């Protein structure tokens, strides 16, 4: 609401200031035009008066010399000019003209008209300035009437005279009042229109921001499906799009965190279940041996079962340690020759289980990859051991490397019993294993973590010919199956 008010007030004030400025400029321009026209008229009139008086004075002098040669008027005599101006000079001026003549020293010789008569009782700064500086004017109000006073220096009969003229400026006064009235009316109408438009604009803007605020509150309250309207092509639409991207990102992260939480809980539950069985067996056989009379055969059998369950716990501990190492160990990245990496993993897999008569073939593999050698070797050994357990006696297993457009894929292919779609979907989840199969289901989980820490993916496919092909794909994900021949 505060933003809506601020936008409304700012836009209205800006528009009103613009209207006031334009109105003031129009008023000033109109007044200047009227003033310029009046000043031009007074300047012309002043020139006409100067020419008429100077001509009449010279003509009178010539006439006086021709008829009164014994007592001519002194040429340039100030007293004679004063007498002339007080006498016949007034008749030269138009009747009703607003004219005043002043000799040096400020003495007024002739004044005609109501405006000048009324102004004579006041200070006349424009007349004083004209004697020193040249033509001057003053706009003033006399007895409620707006008038323009214009004064200019004249040269009559060799004497400096200041002529002052006045004219009523009712037209300027009327123009000013009309312009101010028009400005007030237009300002009122503009204010009404702009206020309405500003209100609608501010309401539309604040409404979208208020929607974003409500969406933010819902998002903060856990409603991660909140969406904002992205309609339009303005900044509010851009902000709404950013909000939606943020909402999607938060929702994805929350879902991922919830999934990780569920995975951790499932991991703990499965680990507890895996530990409960051997621990229960160990405790049960120990209690049985304590409660039974000594019998060597029974003791040997009971101790063997206790030892087997203890080793199972040790195997589980070792597998968990490997999983933790794959998830959190600091990696020592280096360039590793792919052929040697595959060959070493195949040799170790053969040494661990060579009773089934299986054949592990290492295909051609050139070049190198940047990886943690020990972790990658662990992943390949786990994949080979899984293939050995899934293959029939005498079968063969293929291990190799494919490169395509800068990507590298390490793979292990067997021709055993394979995996169903459900099993492939759950592959890599700790403690997920086939019913009746030994182990703890941690091997593929370890491989998946090692692939993830190297920026790769663990992929499962059922190629033609049966069996399973598991690959560790770096960068892009090329098809690596076409060159793998079935037996």
Structure description:
With 487 residues, the protein is of the alpha+beta class. It folds into 3 domains: 2-176, Beta-Lactamase; 224-328; 331-474, 2-Layer Sandwich (Heat Shock Protein 90), CATH 3.30.565.10. The chain is built from 12 helices and 12 strands. It has helices spanning 2-67, 78-86, 89-92, 114-119, 125-133, 170-220, 235-291, 296-328, 338-352, 373-390, 421-426, 443-453; strands spanning 99-103, 107-112, 136-142, 145-156, 159-168, 333-337, 359-362, 368-372, 396-404, 407-414, 456-461, 468-474. The strands form 3 sheets. A 5-stranded antiparallel β-sheet has the order 2-1-5-4-3, with helices on both faces. It has a 5-stranded mixed β-sheet with strand order 7-9-10-12-11. A hairpin with a 2-residue loop joins strand 4 (145-156) and strand 5. Helix 1 packs antiparallel against helix 6 (170-220), helix 6 (170-220) runs parallel beside helix 7 (235-291) and helix 7 runs antiparallel to helix 8 (296-328).
Domains counted in the coordinates: how many? 3
β-strand amount = 15-25%
Q: How are strands sequenced across the largest beta sheet?
A: 2-1-5-4-3
Q: Summarize the helix and strand pattern as letters.
A: HHHEEHHEEEHHHEHEEHEEHHEE
- Low-pLDDT runs: 477-487
